Amino acid sequence: MKAVIDVRDLVKTYGEGEATVHALAGVSLTINRGDYVAIMGSSGSGKSTLMHILGCLDIPTSGSYLLDGVDVSRLNDRQLALVRNRRIGFVFQAFNLIPRTSAVANVELPLAYAGVKASVRRKRALAALDMVGLGNRADHDPNQLSGGQQQRVAVARALVSEPALLLADEPTGNLDSKSTADVLAVLDQINREGRTIVLITHEDEVAHHARRVIRLKDGEIMSDVRQRAIQDERDEVPSWA
Ligand code: ADP
Ligand code: MG
C-alpha cells in the first residue's frame, strides 16, 4: 500500500535558549492511501503545528516529510505553494469562502490558480458540488447557504483539484449537530471512494467517524489506534487517486 504521508523524526521548535518550545518533539508517522485519520490532543499538544507541516504551510526544524512520495521538507516557498495547490485540499473551521461569489465560482478557484481553462473549470466545479450534494445550489452566494452547506462547498473546493490528501482543521467546530452530521456524511462518503483524510478534532463524535485516531501530548504521539481497516482498494471508484 502506498504512503500518502511519511514523516520521520519531525521536530519543530520555536524560540531559542531557555525559551525554546518543542512544539513537535520527534513525530514519526505513516498514513496510507485511503485512510481517514483524526488527530486529537489537548490545547498546546502540537496538533496545529503538525497540521501546518503536513499541509506544507510550514517546514520542520528537522526531520523528513515525504508527501505522496515527494520530499517536501526542504522545498522553498514557491515550491511549497505549488505542492499546496496541487496535492492538498484544505478545509478550515471558518469555511473561508469568498463572499458575494457563487458556490461554483468558489469551487473553481483552485483550478483557476492552477491555470485550468474556464470551460473545464466550470465542469469540474459542478461535478464537485454534485459530489457534496449541492449541485442545485451552484449559483448561490455563501450568505444564501446554511453553515453546513457552506462547509460542504468548502469540501468541494478542497477536492476539485483531486488532491492526494484532504486536510481539515476542526471542520465541524462552527456547526450545529445537524450540519455536523451532514458534513461528516460527506467526508465518510469521499473516504469510502478512496480519498485520504486527516482531520483535527476535539470531539469524540467526530473522531468516531475516522478509521484511525492519533492522540498527541507534548509534541509526541501518545497513542495511535485503528478503529476500522482501510477499505479494500478494489472497492474504490477508479477515478479517485
Ligand atoms: P495545539 O494546536 O495542539 O493547541 P500548537 O501546535 O498550536 O498546539 O502548539 C504547540 C506548542 O507550540 C504550544 O506550546 C504553543 O504555545 C507553541 N507554539 C505554537 N506556535 C508557536 C509560535 N509561532 N511561536 C512560539 N510558540 C509556538
Ligand atoms: Mg491548535
Properties at a glance:
Rossmann fold; binds magnesium ion; binds adenosine-5'-diphosphate; single chain; 6-stranded mixed sheet
Description:
The chain has 241 residues and is α/β, with parallel strands linked by helices. It has one domain (34-52, 75-226): Rossmann fold. The protein contains seven helices and ten strands. Strands 6-7-8-3-9-10 form a six-stranded mixed beta sheet, with helices on both faces. It is globular and about 55 Å long. The relative contact order is 0.19. The mean pLDDT is 93. The chain binds adenosine-5'-diphosphate (ADP) and magnesium ion. Adenosine-5'-diphosphate binds at residues 14-15, 21, 23, 41, 43-49. Residues 47-48 line the site of magnesium ion.
Write the layout of secondary structure elements.
Blueprint: E1 3-14, E2 21-32, E3 36-40, H1 47-54, E4 62-67, E5 70-71, H2 77-87, E6 88-92, H3 103-113, H4 118-131, H5 147-159, E7 165-169, H6 177-192, E8 197-200, H7 204-207, E9 212-217, E10 220-226
Parallel strand pairs: 3-8, 3-9, 6-7, 7-8
Antiparallel strand pairs: 1-2, 1-4, 4-5, 9-10
Helix pairs in contact: 3-4, 3-5, 4-5, 5-6
